[in-house]
Amino acid sequence: AVRCWGSLGDASGDWMEGKGLPDPLMGGLSTAEITDIDDGSKQGCVVQGQGINCWTSAPQLFAPFGGALWAARVIGLTEVKSVRVAPAHNACALRRTGTIWCWGLNTAGQLGIGTFNNSESPIAVRDRDNAPVTDARAIAVDGARTCAIRSGGTVWCWGTAWDSSAASDREPWPVKRPSIRDAVAISISSDTGCAIDSFRDVWCCGRNTVGRLGTATGSSPGRVPGLPAIQKIAVGGAFVCATIDAPTDNVWCWGSDVYGQTAGNGAAVTAPHPVFHLPGKATNIAAGTTTACA
Predict the structure, then answer these.
(1) Is the pLDDT of residue 109 over 50?
(2) What pTM value is reported for the model?
(3) Which end of the chain is more exposed for a tag (fewer CB within 10 A), N or C?
(4) Percent residues over pLDDT 70 in the chain
(5) pLDDT at position 287, please?
């Protein structure tokens, strides 16, 4: 079963703020095992039975999949490995065939289909020669940008350009990030993207305000210095957290600390530092706009 809390829609589709208690989805899910789940601003999806079920409180933007507390099957997607949902009403699925299928808003080319047209149905991501991508290993989605790890550990992104906010700097096809190689994991937010390479080093790109690249004056993309071997990584609103292979104090964070999300003293953390006082060893890490969880 799936339960949701926070800002939710009720069974009639009306929007409600501040649901502190987990509510079950009211229908649309089978009894098959759920193998992946992701949640955006007003929508969420699960991988179930190698297909995808989604729900939304904004069907006019995320049509035609589900309502506020009931899920509907995404037609035409099988052999699904993972799903990623953006805050801005778009989503992508990675199939076991290595293809990527995206749908929803496409104002910046974040669907990777060569146009800026929205799509209510999943469409295969294509390279500039119009051939479908078939070698994807992992995907990451944000509101106006999508990235994927492809064969050889290369990182490719499409949508809004990393180092610009100009409306004209949009790319509707995958573009290779040449400075990031041998990637094994990736996480992105609106202004920052980070990848772990095969040596367990972290490489980040984007804007370096408040030290979100892990250095006071770091280049983009660049290797984050001062980190032990990294296991997992999560990019938040203006900060990054990662886990290392250690029995205790194995979460390290850097970037903005306005809300205490990097466990500092409120000032920007321009170099990675451990988060103390976590009980035991963290096995996973998640980062939201202003919150981190392990």
Answers:
(1) yes
(2) 0.86
(3) N
(4) 82
(5) 82
In the chain, which ranges are continuous DSSP H helix? 59-62
CB 70 within 8 A of CB 25: yes
pLDDT tens-digit readout, 198-245: 999 999 888 788 888 888 776 667 889 889 899 999 998 888 999 988
Spatial neighbors of 16 by CB under 8 A, at least 6 apart, are: 7, 8, 9, 10
Looking at residue 21, what is its pLDDT?
47
Look at strands 34-39 and 15-24 and give their pairing.
unpaired
Q: Are strands 43-48 and 202-206 parallel, antiparallel or unpaired?
A: unpaired
Does the structure show a pLDDT above 90 at 120? no
Closest by CA to 181, choosing from 153, 158, 151, 162, is 153
Question: DSSP letter at 211?
Answer: G
- CA distances from residue 53 to 3, 47, 82, 136 in whole angstroms, order as listed: 14, 7, 12, 22
Which residues are within 8 A (CB) of 191 and not within 5 positions of it... i.e. 6 or more apart? 206, 207, 209, 212, 238
Measured from the Cβ of residue 151, the count of other Cβ atoms closer than 10 Å reads: 10
List, as one string, the DSSP characters of 118-151.
Answer: -EEEEEE-B-TTSPBP----EEEEETTEEEEEEG
Sheet strand arrangement including 202-206: 183-188, 192-197, 202-206, 222-223
| More confident of the two residues 28 and 236 | 236
* Distance in angstroms (rounded) separating the CA atoms of residues 196 and 128: 26
62, 112, 151, 275 from 119: Cα distances, Å: 9, 11, 27, 42
Rounded Cα distance, 124 and 103, in Å: 9
The tokens for 70 are: 């009931």
